[in-house]
Structure formats: structure tokens, C-alpha cells
């Protein structure tokens, strides 16, 4: 069995290879990890938490979700999707920071939507909504959803600041679709 340890080091150094500094290697690894994490968060998926009860009973306060950002580059949102979006700019003065909202897509571009008698009607047909906390106690519409915009409502209809209060969400404001809840452990699962 040949003794290669001293010779290997001398051979590597004589061929122009320098020993690797572990600090430099560690910093490179950390830097690459940060760049990858930021890229994934910006373009692929991100974690979000639920700060209010506007989506109860589907989502509860402090639930943690994964929001995927890729599918809407290929297909439009569909009715029933739970979406995270930037609220319309007219809701907040320029100086105030805007937080993203989370609601359910109800009205698609071109739909005529009316809320009356505790029921949502899409193009004159009642929408079956087994996910809401209570029937809406307000009247809204009828209004037609403009092209490239969506009507979004919270599942807690009577305690949600949503499209029935401020209007439609432009498609370009939609960040992504909530796909899975990862916290708390007893409520882990798809949405």
C-alpha cells in the first residue's frame, strides 16, 4: 500500500492548487444559500401567516401557509382559489406601508356578481359555499367584474375587508395561491 499523504499534498501544491481556506468556503456557501433563498422566495414560493379572522373558518389567526407563485404565470386564477395579493393602491396613502391580503376568488373577469338574501349569485346562479363562516348580511351589486380583475371575498363574509368594500383586484396585484398550511401541526394540510 503506497504512502500518499505527504506526496499528495506536495503534488497538489506543486501543480498550482492552493489549500482551501475554510472561512472563505463557509462564506461562499452562506452567500450562495442566501441568493438561492431570496430567489425562491421572490419567484417560486414563500411562507405567509394569517393576521386576522377574515378567512375563518378555513384559515385561523396565526396559521402559517405556503404561497406558490408560479402557476398564475401559465393559467389564470379560478373561482375558489385562495390568493395572496397587494390591495389596490387607493386603499392606502402613499406614505403608509401596505401589507398583502388573503381572500378567496369569487368573481372572474366578465362575471356578473350580486350578493343578496345571504347568497352570492354569479351570472344569476347561486354559488354553493360550504366554506363560509356565515351567510353575508349585506347587499352588493349586481356588478360585472372588469377584464383582468377579480372579485375576492373573505370566508368570514361579515368580518372581512374585501372586494364588497373596496372593489376589484387587478390580476397584476396577485402574488400567488395559498396551497398548503404547515402550522399549527394539528391543522397541517392542503387548502
Written overview of the protein:
By secondary structure, this protein is of the alpha+beta class. It is built from three helices and twelve strands. Strands 1, 2, 3, 4, 9, 10, 11 and 12 form an eight-stranded antiparallel sheet that branches. Strands 7-6-5-8 form a four-stranded antiparallel sheet, with no helix packed on it. The longest helix is centred in the first third of the chain and has 22 residues. It is elongated and about 75 Å long. About 6% of the residues have low confidence.
Low-confidence stretches: 4-14
Give the termini separation.
61 Å
The number of helical segments is 3
As a percent range, the share of strand residues is 25-35%
Please state the overall shape, judged from the principal axes of the Cα atoms: elongated
The helix/strand class is alpha+beta
Per DSSP E runs of 2 or more residues, the count of β-strands stands at 12
How would you summarize this macromolecular structure in one to three sentences?
Helix content is 19%, strand content 29%. The chain has three helices and twelve strands.
Amino acid at each position: 500500500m503506497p504512502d500518499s499523504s505527504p506526496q499528495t499534498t506536495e503534488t497538489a501544491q506543486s501543480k498550482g492548487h492552493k489549500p482551501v481556506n475554510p472561512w472563505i468556503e463557509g462564506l461562499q456557501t452562506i452567500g450562495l444559500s442566501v441568493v438561492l433563498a431570496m430567489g425562491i422566495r421572490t419567484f417560486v414560493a414563500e411562507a405567509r401567516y394569517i393576521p386576522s379572522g377574515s378567512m375563518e373558518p378555513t384559515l385561523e389567526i396565526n396559521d402559517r401557509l405556503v404561497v406558490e407563485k408560479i402557476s398564475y404565470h401559465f393559467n389564470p386564477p379560478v373561482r375558489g382559489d385562495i390568493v395572496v395579493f397587494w390591495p389596490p393602491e387607493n386603499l392606502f396613502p402613499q406614505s403608509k406601508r401596505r401589507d398583502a391580503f388573503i381572500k378567496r376568488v369569487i368573481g372572474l373577469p366578465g362575471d356578473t356578481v350580486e350578493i343578496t338574501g345571504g347568497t352570492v349569485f354569479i351570472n344569476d346562479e347561486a354559488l354553493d359555499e360550504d366554506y363560509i363562516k356565515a351567510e353575508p348580511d349585506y347587499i352588493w351589486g349586481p356588478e360585472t367584474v372588469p377584464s383582468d380583475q377579480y372579485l375576492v371575498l373573505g370566508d368570514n363574509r361579515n368580518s372581512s375587508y374585501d372586494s364588497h368594500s373596496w372593489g376589484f383586484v387587478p390580476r397584476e396585484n396577485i402574488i400567488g395561491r395559498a396551497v398548503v398550511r404547515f402550522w399549527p401541526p394539528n391543522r397541517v394540510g392542503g387548502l
